[in-house]
Amino acid sequence: MASIFFSSSRRKMLACSRPLPFLFTRRRLHQPYNSLTESDVQIFSEILGHNPSLLLQASDPIVHAASTDWTGHYWQAPARLLLRPQTTAQISALLAHCHQRRLPVVPQGGKTGLVGGSVPTVAHEEIILQLQYLNQITALDPVLGIVTCQAGVVLENLQDYCANHSWLVPLDLGAKGTCQIGGNLATNAEGPYFRKYGCLAGNVLGLEVVLADGRILDYNYRLSNNMKDNTGYKWHQLFLGSEGTLGIITGVTLACAPLPRSKQAAFVACSSYDQVLLVLQKAKQYLGEILAAMEFMDAAIWKLVEASGRHQMPLSVETILSESAVQEGGPFFLLIDTHGSNANHDQEKWQTFLEAVQDDILNGVLAQDIKQYQSFWQIRESANPTVAQLGYTYKYDVSLPIAQFQDWIQEMRLERLGPLARNESSSLVNANWGHILDGNLHFNVTTIGKREVQKDVLDALEPYLFHSILKRGGSISAEHGLGQAKNHLLPSVHDEHTLDLMRSLKALLDPRMILNPGKFLPAK
Amino acid sequence: MASIFFSSSRRKMLACSRPLPFLFTRRRLHQPYNSLTESDVQIFSEILGHNPSLLLQASDPIVHAASTDWTGHYWQAPARLLLRPQTTAQISALLAHCHQRRLPVVPQGGKTGLVGGSVPTVAHEEIILQLQYLNQITALDPVLGIVTCQAGVVLENLQDYCANHSWLVPLDLGAKGTCQIGGNLATNAEGPYFRKYGCLAGNVLGLEVVLADGRILDYNYRLSNNMKDNTGYKWHQLFLGSEGTLGIITGVTLACAPLPRSKQAAFVACSSYDQVLLVLQKAKQYLGEILAAMEFMDAAIWKLVEASGRHQMPLSVETILSESAVQEGGPFFLLIDTHGSNANHDQEKWQTFLEAVQDDILNGVLAQDIKQYQSFWQIRESANPTVAQLGYTYKYDVSLPIAQFQDWIQEMRLERLGPLARNESSSLVNANWGHILDGNLHFNVTTIGKREVQKDVLDALEPYLFHSILKRGGSISAEHGLGQAKNHLLPSVHDEHTLDLMRSLKALLDPRMILNPGKFLPAK
After folding, report:
1. In a domain, B117, yes or no
2. For chain A, N or C: smaller number of CB within 10 Å?
3. Which chain B residues are Cβ-neighbours of A480 within 8 angstroms?
């Protein structure tokens, strides 16, 4: 995917030796990069204590694996070098050398971001820097529920640790068993509990960051864990969602929520998208403060998950279709999840809610126990791996006004997928899901049996798809970020003042542009 | 207060003509400023459409009033000029001229920040720029509860407007009838509902800002209102809490919460601070997701509010003391507030909570109706005006580990206030309150009958007080910001890397240092 999209812009970026005409900064950008030498490798080895498991060369299969993410879309060639520091001080020393020598670096967590932000672009010969050995949970305040940990802690491990102390990490993702908290922060991953537990911008109380030149910045990370602090610019926020282009996050202090004592979930099926919206409104009204998440799945993804045979489905599309008329694309399924502190109260709220929607839904199944609750979430979370297994998937993570989800999907089907299917270039499946409470849709087009990107499919979808999203007031990247997949689109999203400011911030914090080149910011 | 503290550092700042030795930026800082001329006034008048009510000169009583805040601490002399633009475009044109001419500007909202951030420092001859005529609420998304408004909207007006549409602005302050939302954002004001509804960093979805040179920046303000957007650096966060030193906030898009259908509050009295902590833990446990705020008041502030005669107090210190032994400083009062969607459920939660704490408290009164609920909050909110009326008040807004509130207050009394009282320099009252759920304490020393700062009192309190807070891992400014009152302390709070970064961000966004000079950043 990347090779088709970005080769021209990458060339432009590499060729850029004149000072960029920033309004904010007039610094010369130092490019291109130097090539790695044996002397560099020796210096890195010394910093890492001559430990062979912390410095791996291109021929190592681990480096091969680290050079692509799990989508497989961004594979080009093995990176020259993979570094696995164990401390912030080592990262500082490694970066100071890379900065001085102008060697580009790609920071890497669990590689689950889906937009190619965590893998090399080869054109720049990046060194991969993995965070996985910075995996200590260093403190948990039992009164406030503030947890401090290093960036390489796997999200699920952090969740389990905090849950054992009755606290809930305010972030959950399908990839929790693989992704690392540092990567979650660097990509500003949000997930389904965004409305209930707030966004990372609000829950991150402290951050430790190593800048490109090796300086270590500390924002309320080592010495304090205050909920409120108003003693300076909130510069730490710049690193959230910056995809490692401004600095490398090495530690975080995070505000947790009390662990819910009562969890409940139901799947309901609706015949039309208008019914979906009605159920959403009534869920807010009757479930109130316990409403934790509301996940949308259309008939296509439901059928694919059902066909995978891996899940016991509580509802069947075929049965519904044999009994009821539904809107095109339907039936639509909603996974409604509640978190509360009093099971009796939660059950009563559920009862009044289900009574209120009984005429609006085709069918509904309430989880009977925590096991079924978990199995419902497994159905939802299997959406992504299910389509990935079927073939190359063109994935679009967008924000849209909630009322327009299905209308926009229909527009895409009529305008883009219909004509494409008639060309018979591929066997296409369009399957969609998302966090409807947040207006966040995951739109997916899978080319069955294919493993490579196809130019005709891509051309049919883009840039039409993105322009259509922007025209409707949406966002072309809701929670997965830009990486290599969407950074070229930023000039359509932001005006020149904003782009200038972003470039200036980059020039300020990483003047030699060594951090994650070819990602996030578009080439100019 | 300011004149004693800062005259030397101000002189240093004015005298600073050499380039600051930033690690990040090596730009020359252009100071001192130019003086205002008749030609400048003519240009401003033209930009403001020659409307005499939008441009006021020093002789006008309105300018006199605008040159100090309601504490009266920071008064020096009337500002030379007061501008009251009506549009973002006018602000842009005004700032472009000030930038070009090197004329310093102090942006001003409701002036309720308490740290002198919104008033002139006279040494710089600032022009005051009031935001009050940018007071339009421009949109409210009925499904998502996202409100868009201009910076000059008074917080209470915004609350009322949203409440009429069943949405709750996720911010409340005692000063809501006066403060403006733009000022709330610029000072990162948080208030009592921080834990329940999240912080501004999380709830601000969009921002419009005018930079020092007149450029208008837009972060998801005019064209979109997406809950999730990951298409760039989160630069808008820099302006929250920056006290107008990086740019002037002119508009905001804010995520609201559903209006609670059930509100309940109680005052409880505890004999010791350990009991307070126990009640806090049990409130979290039994009230769970409906716990909205928990406000601490010590015996001293309770007695002062009682003595003011303006409130019907639900509990009496004298009665409690006649019946029970209490810890020094006690009895301690807690205002516990809940917001929920189901009154029956909330009442049951209250019942189990009150049963669980009945042996931990001396007494408790549950509000019988919404009128009493409001009167409880009025008691809490009257704390600030009550001490202000009694005399000059040395106010300290700090974060502390919750368990240490009373221990630290006792330390201050023993080490600092006791010796001071023995000197009989003043009649002192130490009265304290705060948002205990957030670890945010408001510590106040009032010199009865005095209207001016006294050097001996100040010297007894500072810098000891701040060092003691930092030693305990607290923050010297929890929610009121730095302004003129605490900016000189930043070198004790942050390391040189962080200070450098803050100065570099200032130099990037306001290279001529025209925005709110003498505030926020310390002179170097």
Report:
1. yes
2. C
3. 230
Contacts of A401 (CB under 8 A, 6+ apart): A439, A472, A473, A474
Domain containing A425 equals: 385-480
Flag if B233 and A223 touch (Cβ within 8 Å). no
- Chain A residues with beta carbon closer than 8 angstroms to that of B349: 341-342, 345
| Total number of domains in chain B | 4
With beta carbons less than 8 A apart as the criterion, state whether A509 and A212 touch.
Answer: yes
Rounded alpha-carbon distances, angstroms, from residue B170 to A425, B181, B184, B190, B441:
51, 11, 12, 9, 20
Which amino acid type is present at position A10? Answer: R
The alpha carbon torsion through A456, A462, A463, A468 (nearest 10 deg) reads 130
Count of Cβ atoms closer than 10 Å to residue A419 Cβ: 10
Beta strands A291-297 and A428-435, pairing class: antiparallel
Q: Is the pLDDT of residue A523 over 80?
A: no
Does residue A490 belong to any structural domain of this protein? no
Q: Are residues A246 and A150 in the same domain?
A: yes
Torsion, Cα A274 A277 A283 A289, to 10 degrees, reads -170
Please identify, among B362, B381, B400, the residue that sits at the C-terminal boundary of a domain: B381
List strand residue ranges (DSSP E) for B273-328, in order. Answer: 291-297
CA B179 to chain centre: 10
Q: Please indicate whether, in this complex, the C-beta atoms of B477 and A403 are within 8 angstroms of each other.
A: no
List of chain B residues whose C-beta atoms are within 8 Å of the C-beta of residue A224: 399, 473-475
The answer to whether the CB atoms of A231 and B187 lie below 8 A apart is: no
Q: Quick check: A238 and B234 CB within 8 A?
A: yes
Q: Which SS3 state, helix, strand or coil, does residue A207 take?
A: strand
List all residues 6 or more positions away from A123 whose beta carbon is below 8 Å from its beta carbon: A7, A10, A14, A518
**Number of Cβ pairs closer than 8 Å across A and B?**
256
AA letter at A21 = P
**What CA–CA distance (Å, rounded) separates A383 from A386?**
5
Residue B358: per-residue pLDDT? 96
Rounded CA separation B111/B189 (Å): 12
Rounding to the nearest 10 degrees, give the CA dihedral for residues B499, B505, B506, B508. 140
Residue A482 has pLDDT above 80, yes or no: yes
Which residue in chain B has the smallest CA separation from A500? B217
Q: What is the CA radius of gyration of chain A?
A: 24
Distance CA A383, CA B437 (A): 39
Query: In angstroms, rounded to a whole number, what is the distance separating the alpha carbons of residues B309 and A241?
Result: 53
B381, B413, B435 — which closes off a domain?
B381
* CB spacing of B440 vs A399 below 8 angstroms: no
Q: Which of A390, A393, A385 is nearest to A457 (CA)?
A: A393
CB-CB under 8 Å, B226 with A494: no
Looking at the structure, tell me whether residues A225 and A302 fall in a common domain.
no
Q: Which residues of A touch B25 (CB under 8 A)?
A: 508
Give SS3 for A142: coil
Question: What's the rounded Cα separation, in Å, for the pair B402 and B56?
Answer: 47
How many other CB atoms are there within 10 angstroms of residue B328's CB atom?
11
Question: How close B372 comes to chain A (CA, Å)?
Answer: 24
Residues in chain B with CB shorter than 8 Å from the CB of A504 are 508
Residues of B in contact with A490 (CB under 8 A): 231-232
Instruction: Test B473 with A284 for CB contact under 8 angstroms.
Output: no
Under 8 Å CB-to-CB from A351, ≥6 apart: which residues?
none
Query: Radius of gyration (Cα) for chain B, nearest Å?
Result: 24
Convert the pLDDT of each residue in B304-357 to its tens digit. Answer: 999 999 999 999 999 999 999 999 999 999 999 999 999 999 999 999 999 999
Predicted-assembly ipTM surpassing the 0.90 threshold = yes
Q: With an 8 Å Cβ cutoff, are B502 and A217 in contact?
A: no
Cβ-nearest to A289 among B187, B215, B341: B341
pLDDT band at B359 (very low <50, low <70, confident <90, very high): very high
Q: Which residue of A has its CA nearest to B493?
A: A231
